From TrEMBL:
This is Succinic semialdehyde reductase isofom2. Pfam families: NAD_binding_2 (PF03446). The lineage of its organism: Eukaryota, Viridiplantae, Streptophyta, Embryophyta, Tracheophyta. It comes from the Eukaryota. GO terms for molecular function: NADP binding; oxidoreductase activity, acting on the CH-OH group of donors, NAD or NADP as acceptor. PANTHER family: CYTOKINE-LIKE NUCLEAR FACTOR N-PAC, OXIDOREDUCTASE GLYR1-RELATED.
Amino acid sequence: MGNPMPQNLIKAGCDVTVWNRTKSKCQPLISLGVYANFDYGADLSLFMLASKKCVFKLSLPNSEVDNGNLC
């Protein structure tokens, strides 16, 4: 699910920025011309996360849900 979404956005003419903890997973998209850097100044951010736990860790980083482990 992670690669088809930005690929479709690129085909539609959108500027796309991607980020992944494992940088090599971004490489197929980088070769299509996307930026590889997380940009907090974006107009819209879409997240493809592995689990509900990851959603909570991203949206509530200082909550009791965050136990310091990576998703």
